[in-house]
Amino acid sequence: MLLARREFIAGAGAFAAFSAFPAARQTRVAGLDPNLMVFFADVHQHDGRAHWPDWQYTQANKVFPGLVAEVLRLRPLPANAVVFGDFSTSFGWEEDFRLAAAALKPLADAGIGLTLGMGNHDNRAAFMRVFPDYAARCLVPGRIVSKVSTPNADFIMLDTLKARDGKDWAEPTEEGNHVEGAMDAAQRAWLRETLSGATRPTFVGAHHRAQEVGIVPELVAAPTVYGYIFGHEHTWADGFLHDGYANSRTVQTATLPSGGFWGDIGYALFRTFPDRAELTVRQTDFWFNRRWPEKPRPKNWGERVRMHNGRTITFWYDKPSNFYKG
Ligand SMILES: [Fe+2]
């Protein structure tokens, strides 16, 4: 379902202000580094409703704008910002997306292009009302899928939201979506076709693990896919994908911290070069089930910040054919 751009803007009403968000940056702009992107995941904005009003659920409303402000102090600025889903705390209320849009607006005002993905706590209908311009950028009918080309590499954002009972565009309810991700046949076919024709270094992103949505064979087989980056787990981590021990090809992975709601808290900077990309984490905090801010912080919370902050995962553009098959 790809609605015309005009229909979305006409239906946007009071949210038309957010339609001014710039599309992903594909060209050089003064002050913006076209080979630098900032990655946020799981920003979990909270609409302040009576349910779950306590400290931990509303904390991200303060933390995420603070992380954005920190990014805006960087020089040069990243030309692109990516959000890997879970804009909303839980059910995808429109107000959650409005809060996320307000937090992202300073990036847009600085000319930074936005690429946005869907998480299990999001709702496509509410998202599209708040980000109406995004309709024009969706590459797969009915799915929030987009692609950014930068001088050194391409980046593809997939849509792994699995709505309950197949209600892909239903309004949000407290029933919520499935926690696990999924990918339908149409998006999978688009991914196969896109990757089979790819000749530039390509990075693929989504909210969920590749294993969970069954796209490991596609990523491993693609000769120019050098990395898969995802959120959902609120944990900074590296890893790799493989397609069974008979195939020696692998794909480096990275899991992103959360932009404000439990677990590893922070963002990551993604810098591409002609021969590699580097993803460096900026971790500002760690907490879990913190209903009691007055209690002392467990030692491991600070230790995780020290262990992670500043760590870099490198993705070399080096993917030989399967050693076993020659
Ligand atoms: Fe999340």
Biggest sheet: strands side by side, in what order?
3-2-1-10-11-12
Major sheet, described briefly? 6 strands, mixed
Any idea what the radius of gyration is? Answer: 19 Å
What is the fold-level CATH name, i.e. the topology? Purple Acid Phosphatase, chain A, domain 2
List the uncertain runs.
Answer: 1-17
Number of domains: 1
**Shape assignment:** globular
What is the CATH H-level superfamily? Metallo-dependent phosphatases
Question: Which ligands, by name, code or SMILES, are bound?
Answer: fe (ii) ion
Q: In terms of structural class, how would the helical and strand content be classed?
A: alpha/beta
| Average pLDDT figure | 90
Helical fraction: 10-25%
CATH hierarchy, class: Alpha Beta
Strand content: 15-25%
